[in-house]
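Fold this sequence, please.
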Amino acid sequence: MKSTLIISLFIATCAVFTFIAPTHAQKKQDLIPATHMWLKTGQDSMSFVPVRSQQQCEMMIRQAATLNSSEGNCFNAEKFLKNLSCTKPVKNDTAPKCK
């Protein structure tokens, strides 16, 4: 229950920074547009997170996986873009393994 609360707060913080982030940096890259993602952590916790690109969606799933193994689905409106499943790293200084 405690990890669910921590991850929910993390997702809320990420959502706030999504709208604060500068958009001019995204225009320079060829980003695949996305509107939102569903992030699943644990057995029964699923959260809606607004995003601007598929790359941002993947980054947020990886960041959530550093706290707890997670799975996410990226969407552009109603169009499904990608599913990413990441496993929490065993060692502290390693990145999550995603597939």
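The mean pLDDT is 83. The longest helix spans residues 2-20.
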